[in-house]
Amino acid sequence: MLEHDVIIVGGGLAGCRAALEIKRTDPNLDVALVAKTHPIRSHSVAAQGGMAATLKNVDVEDTWEAHAFDTVKGSDYLADQDAVEILTREAADVVIDLEHMGVLFSRLPDGRIAQRAFGGHSNRRTCYAADKTGHAILHELVNNLKRNGVRLYDEWYVMQLIVEQGQAKGVVMFRIRDSKVQVVRAKVVMFATGGYGRVYNTTSNDYASTGDGLAMSAFAGVPLEDMEFVQFHPTGMYPVGVLLSEAVRGEGAYLINANGDRFMATYAPSRMELAPRDITSRAIVREIRAGRGIHPDGSAGGPFIYLDLRHMGREKIMSRIPFCWEEAHRLLGIDAVHEPIPVRPTVHYSMGGIPVNTDGQVRSGPDGLIEGFFAAGEAACVSVHGANRLGSNSLLECIVYGRRTGAAIARYIQDRKLPDINEQSYIRSTQEQINTLMNQSGTIRIGALRQNFQDCMTQHCGVFRTEELMQEGLNQLKQLQQQYEQIYLDDKGTTWNTELIEALELRSLMVVGEIILTSALNRKESRGAHCREDYTERDDTNFLKHTMAFYSPAGIDLNYLPVAITRFEPKERKY
């Protein structure tokens, strides 16, 4: 049996920053990080736009309090304000710390870190590295892990979180290279496994974003918080769904409809293209529904609108947002200097996740905590985003709460012993699960079932929702879950069996999808990214609270947790 003081699952920004902080706090601790890809290929590397912090390099009057208010307002008042205060107070410090590690942020002419405008922010406070910010940060963090002696298990798929008597004791993991199953016991387990965009059929997320950490937590009896709040990013390239960063609009790009109008003037006149993402996504869908979308031939009535950069000029496009130009040219053959880019909303981010307190320790419900279990990043819900995340706050959350959770783990672990685990029983049950999947003689291909499931979620729990639509989706999902027992695998091998991994990931996706739909069905209001056409108003009297969803094969049980309000009283959200 493998053993470490700390095992961190997930190789993105939150997991790497936590690992680094643990080693900085106590270099003698034995820290290991496991990821199903190499950490450099974690989805954090795709984060483009930047990281918000009140450095005051561009807007000298900016304050952390203004950043906090923008974040709470953007969240439609569902964010926990104590958590938001920590996020925004510590933002400038973590940016400077990253710079000292070697992160190459873009600069002002005088050498200070540059800052740009971003949706929902009242000041220009987003620090960036062109439009490849996640890439710049992640590379430096991974280099620092190696320098600090963190053990990396890359291309291992974690199959189970071991929780016994309210205590996390370790994980069961599967080496993709040769199908070896290993139990790892640890004094602390931390999940930083990212989001679940592949629950939907069009997403900016990579193929690895299958909600494994959320599903494993749910299987272990951990509730998932606020899973109904799914962020649709307004500008996914049509038809591929690949993201064009909000930085593009931050640098001055327009959204135009089939009539050539900058239609955001109708929906958010004070912010225009830099309104929060939920408002902008709904505006685009409404324009398309009203027949002002665009066809590929340029005529009206089509499925997308245009993101227009042409007025910005080649020099600005190539220096500030080169990746946007590269992606449009590579995937669509469009030269964005001379042609507008077709876009429509694409699933992007999970506001909900594994519930944690402000030290990253996982909640067992509205009151208790699970011993030895921590989480951070997109997989966690601390909740700094509430019902809608502001752009450039996600990288910030990963770094602030990755660092904070790492420091908390280093303190927490000092008087803990390695737990006792019956290794053979976990290896045996895991091997049985694998053998069952490998040998079942079904009639359904994984790809077909996954596509039907993703289509079901997209159709029944999208930008706009109703009770009838979601109930129909839940009924369909139950039928699709039953079909999972009928999938068959062509690949019976033990070397790089990616088909087996896809089967395990599909199980995760289906659990996460059921929790999203059930939580959404029971929130009878519109708030942030959760927009119901049968309950069009926000209902603070009944729903100013966090959903806590407990999974079981028999169904989902819901409980609720109060929102922490410390500084900003909820009021109507207008832009």
Q: What does this protein look like?
A:
This protein has helices at 13-25, 64-74, 81-89, 91-101, 133-147, 212-219, 246-250, 264-267, 277-289, 314-320, 322-332, 394-412, 423-439, 446-460, 467-483, 498-522, 540-543; strands at residues 2-9, 31-35, 51-52, 115-116, 126-127, 151-154, 156-164, 167-175, 180-191, 224-225, 230-237, 254-256, 305-308, 341-350, 354-355, 361-363, 369-375, 380-381, 464-465, 531-532, 545-552, 555-562. It folds into three domains: 2-52 and 62-105 and 134-229 and 349-415, FAD/NAD(P)-binding domain; 232-345, Succinate dehydrogenase/fumarate reductase flavoprotein, catalytic domain (Flavocytochrome C3, Chain A, domain 1), CATH 3.90.700; 424-561, Methane Monooxygenase Hydroxylase, Chain G, domain 1 (Up-down Bundle), CATH 1.20.58. Helix 14 packs antiparallel against helix 15 (467-483). The protein is an alpha/beta fold. Helices cover 35% and strands 20% of the residues. Strands 1, 2, 6, 7, 8, 9, 16 and 17 form an eight-stranded mixed beta sheet that branches. The radius of gyration is 23 Å and the shape is globular. It contains 17 helices and 22 strands. Strand 8 and strand 9 (180-191) form a beta hairpin. It is found in: Membrane. Belongs to the FAD-dependent oxidoreductase 2 family. FRD/SDH subfamily. This is Succinate dehydrogenase flavoprotein subunit. Residues 463-490 form a coiled coil. Keywords: Coiled coil, Electron transport, FAD, Flavoprotein, Membrane, Oxidoreductase, Transport, Ubiquinone.
